[in-house]
Design goal:
This protein has about 230 residues and is α/β, with parallel strands linked by helices. It has a four-stranded mixed β-sheet. A four-stranded parallel β-sheet has the order 9-10-11-12. Strand 7 and strand 8 form a beta hairpin. Helix 7 packs across helix 8. It holds the Pfam family PfkB.
Length: about 230
Amino acid sequence: MAYAVPLQTDRFRCFICSYTKSFPQPGESVRGESFHMGSGGKGANQAVAAAKLDAEVQLIARVGNDSFGRSNVEDLSRQGVDVSQVEVSESSHTGTATITVNAHGENTIVVTLGANLELDEACAERHKETIGKASLVMAQAEVSRKGNKRLFELAKELGVTTFFNPAPGVPDTDKSMVALTDIICTNENEAEYLTGIPQGTLEDAKKAASEMLTMGPEHAIITLGQKG
């Protein structure tokens, strides 16, 4: 099965992670215990997972013309993802997430979106042919709403199944995107934002899933964290 995965690159990032005993105070420098750098994010992780299940995956994303972007693209290619549709921006940098983790496992994160913000309506139009050849198009909610909506409009016009994960959840989640969605997957917070139904139990989740099915999707999935 072929998949086009136009993954909004605000979750296609270079992760820079330092581990330290305690967080620095303003103006303070602390010594790190270890350091890790890698690529990832919602979109990239989903693409790799599908590729490992032997799906044909094409990633539509946007990176900067820099070492982080090249490294990320090379890493995904090694994992079996088709990166031929990844665009390179000459006006912005690859998105980054700078993470600090203390001895208690707590973290602070600074996310800089960079080229991810350039995934707009024009980007969707440029990849219309790729979208039309796909069996499924997946998107999440961390870039231009107009770009996301145009992506799904094209998919629907071309008879391609749409899968939407409206993460991260916000109170004003775009319900016009939900109307264009065949399969929706949310966590409890996102389900509550969409439906107005408070979440806490399995029965609450069932009610929210039923409500989401009235908004357009044919299938609704709610993840429950530690509860399943």
